[in-house]
Design brief:
14 helices, globular
Length: 296
């Protein structure tokens, strides 16, 4: 699994940026679903059936060629599935308990969590430009959030931080996949297992009757939270590394801010635009840095 030069990294960086834009649509869509009186539990559960079905069909297309080598690194797949389930279970809860803008800030603590995890788990020290980009992204994050008033439930804050940790682990471990493997079986396995964990956690058979529109909202959210970004990250993160993947994934917030304005009519102040521009500049600067160095 080699790290590419800057020129050869342009396409995978563009794809990770696209995955981040997809994730950015999730927050305003969840807001709209909650405003439509869809319980968070049903939103979380129903985001999985469509992506699982799509990944199953795509996996069947590579089955004749892959044979017994269809699925590799099973331990890593289980770890990613658990981390992804943690993110889904906690982030949507956080949105319901604290102002959505503050929930995004809590999730975006992955900007420093990912370099910390890369260093702690794999002895990969971030470059100076990486660290500058992280500081710029965090500063831009706080500027870009809307000014809202409470309530700020303490367990909503814990949910948001847990979501940031789960997202960080997902990014770090996704970058450890062997680049030559097919993304479809990995996407199917992690999405199916992650959905299974969510179902066990929420036990939908004990919930209130599912609203008919939960299928629609869950499927739309699943396209942007699971179907589009997962295969992109699994395909391209291994060639970029965890630190650069996290920097590019930060494009999620500018997209969330813009879509919140378009979809739910949230006003955007001048300091939010400054934060968005600061984040985009930091993402661009971080993408120019050399790969992280490995120390022992």
């Amino acid at each position: 699994m080699g790290i590419l030069t800057l020129k050869s990294r342009v396409f995978p960086m563009s794809m990770i940026f696209l995955a981040a834009m997809s994730y950015g649509a999730v927050t305003p869509l969840v807001k709209l679903a909650v405003q439509s009186h869809i319980p968070v539990e049903w939103i979380t559960v129903m985001q999985y059936p469509l992506p699982v079905a799509a990944f199953l069909l795509l996996t069947l297309t590579v089955l004749p060629r892959r044979g017994p080598k269809l699925l590799t690194q099973p331990g890593l797949i289980v770890a990613i599935a658990v981390a992804a389930a943690l993110t889904s279970l906690t982030y949507y809860r956080s949105i319901a308990l604290v102002p959505p803008g503050f929930a995004i800030v809590l999730l975006f603590q992955f900007a420093w969590m990912v370099p910390g995890l890369e260093w702690a788990l794999y002895h990969k020290r971030p470059t100076r430009l990486h660290l500058i980009a992280v500081v710029g992204i965090l500063a831009g994050t706080f500027l870009a959030i809307p000014v809202t008033h409470g309530p700020y439930h303490w367990y909503g804050i814990l949910y948001g931080l847990a979501a940031g940790l789960g997202y960080s682990l997902t990014l770090v471990w996704s970058s450890r996949f062997q680049s030559e493997g097919s993304p479809w079986p990995r996407a199917l396995a992690t999405t199916l297992l992650s959905g299974f964990i969510v179902v066990l956690a929420y036990q939908p058979w004990r919930l209130s009757v599912m609203p008919h529109s939960a299928w629609i909202w869950g499927s739309v959210i699943g396209i942007f939270s699971q179907l589009m970004p997962i295969w992109i990250v699994y395909r391209h993160a291994p060639s970029l590394g965890g630190n650069l993947t996290a920097i590019l994934a930060s494009a999620e917030l500018p997209v969330a801010v813009a879509l919140s304005r378009l979809l739910v009519s949230e006003p955007i102040t001048w300091h939010q635009w400054v934060g968005v521009l600061l984040m985009l500049g930091s993402i661009a600067a971080g993408s120019l840095s050399e790969p992280s160095t490995q120390v022992y």
